[in-house]
Amino acid sequence: MSSKPAEFESTFKEIALQALQWFNLDRMTLFPNSMILLNDGKSISVSRQGIPELDKKKYVVGNYKGYLKLLRHNREIQTFNAEQLVTSGVGPLEELYKDGGRWHGIIRLELFGQLWGALAFSRFSEGEHDLDQEEVRRLKLLCDTWLVYWQHSTITRSLRQTGEQQGDESEKLLRLSKKQCTVLALLAQGLTAKQCAEKLFLSLEP
Fold it and tell me: Max alpha carbon distance in the chain (Å)?
């Protein structure tokens, strides 16, 4: 419970870099479905060596709000090949192609039973296979771990407050998925983010 957010971010980036290598991805970004939260820095991005780091301001072009609208589709994953990036009509996807991106995927993420945002990931080369269902599941578990950690300190502080507020937060906890509850329980036991990942079979070693 005493883990610092800054320490977790460095741990997440360490795990995410392993995930990039394991899934043969070049860049991965976790972001909220809110321009306000994006501007407040509530996002995290990791790139492999030799791949440009994400410059969020560069992607606020054209129909950039159309990118967030993609999250409304009730599909676990959406993918775009090189041709689809060019013809999407969505500014950030077109900009990604100009930067060298040739394949892009989005996995929507929920928190407290509501849409929170998504995990976006890109490849800057062509000819690779799409992620299969098991790979999508493992990536989503990794992100659920980060999301729950990001929220758990706020929730636990709120739970110490008076009656009505406690009830509101308790209802939020009930809306967590089974996997998110497991992550929260592990964090409450004092496990680090990396240990949580290992407990959830997220070790990316072959």
Answer: 56
User: Nearest 5°: phi and psi at 2?
Assistant: -95, 5
- N- to C-terminal Cα separation, the chain: 31
pLDDT band at 117 (very low <50, low <70, confident <90, very high): confident
Q: What are the backbone dihedrals phi and psi of residue 197, each rounded to the nearest 5 degrees, phi first?
A: -60, -40
**pTM for the predicted model, two decimal places:** 0.71
Would you say 28 and 45 are in contact if contact means Cβ atoms under 8 Å apart? yes
- Mean pLDDT over each residue of the chain, to the nearest integer: 77
Nearest to residue 33, comparing CAs of 109, 134, 94, 124? 109
| Most confidently predicted of 54-58, 122-126, 159-163 | 122-126
Beta strand 103-111 pairing with 27-32: unpaired
Which domains are delineated in the chain?
24-129 (3.30.450.340), 131-206 (no CATH)
pLDDT at residue 84 greater than cutoff 90: yes
In this structure, what token pair is assigned to residue 57? 């301001």
Amino acid at 93: L
Residue 158 identity (one-letter amino acid) = S
Q: Mean per-residue pLDDT for 68-93?
A: 92
Separation of alpha carbons 193 and 184, rounded Å:
10
